[in-house]
Amino acid sequence: MIKLAIVGTNWISEKFAQAALESGKFTVRGVYSRALETAKRFGEPLGATSFFDSLDELGISTDIDAVYIASPNSLHCQQAIQLMRAGKHVICEKPLASNIKEVEQMLEVAKENGVILMEAFKTAYLPNFIELKKATKELGRLHKVHLTYCQYSSRYQRYLDGDNPNTFNPEFSNGSIMDIGFYSVAAAVELFGAPSKIQASGHLLESGVDAHGTVLLSYPDFDVTLEHSKVSNSYAASEIQGEEASLLLTHFSECLGFEKRERSGEVTSVSLPQVENSMMYEAEAFASMIIAQEMDPHAMQRSLDISRIITEVRLQTGVLFPADK
């Protein structure tokens, strides 16, 4: 069993910890928080016995093999590098870092220290998304792809009321393209690889981050349009159009299934069984890399391509973080 520690005590951390336990590959041994009482309150129900308010202490602990990081985006690079240099394997919540330079540095440190670094992009490991990727090869020549993920943030009203939540604060390397928009960019990269051209527009809040935006990724024979928003909801399906057929899917980040519509009019629905806590699949992938003692080259390249795109999108839309300086 891989001995896991959790950095961050929010809802996503609890969900991943449960997924790691459900995979049967991990035991949760430790929790880090700025307050020890918070770490204990979070970790004891998961079976954790080691609690930290110092990353230095976590790093030297012989009771920990791997760490899941779910701290604010701006801390990902610093915390991951510190823990990897201490010999810990790291799975870090998306986005892996604030910008492409940080991602490149993190991957270099992982290689130098012989540890695994993985970006927690669960969609790529879902059974239905894997089936969707196969189905894109059956559509004939591709021409148009539209991926939309727009979800009204539960913290937006706090922002409107004059608060400054992390979600809309550039100090924490946040905003729509770094959060909701990440899924659209990452799905496009997983399905089609890196684009030849990137065009982006965005609408910025007074805080300096983007509230919503649109990204056009150009490939040799087709275009991918990405729509993202943290200030409105979308109920539209995403679509992949080929000359012979098209695929339609809703909420592709969870990808519970999709529909294939042939040009002849025939319609086929695909929905493979998936576990309720869909983070289990990324936990299993992380465990497989640790056991094999080798990072997945495809996953490494995907993280680099995603970060390059998002960094360029921010450059074009004028979203600047302290980490960029």
UniProtKB/TrEMBL annotation:
Coiled coil: none
Domain GFO/IDH/MocA-like oxidoreductase: 136-247
Bilayer-crossing regions: none
Xref: SUPFAM superfamilies: Glyceraldehyde-3-phosphate dehydrogenase-like, C-terminal domain (SSF55347), NAD(P)-binding Rossmann-fold domains (SSF51735)
Record-annotated Gfo/Idh/MocA-like oxidoreductase N-terminal domain positions: 2-120
Protein name: Gfo/Idh/MocA family protein
Domain of life: Bacteria
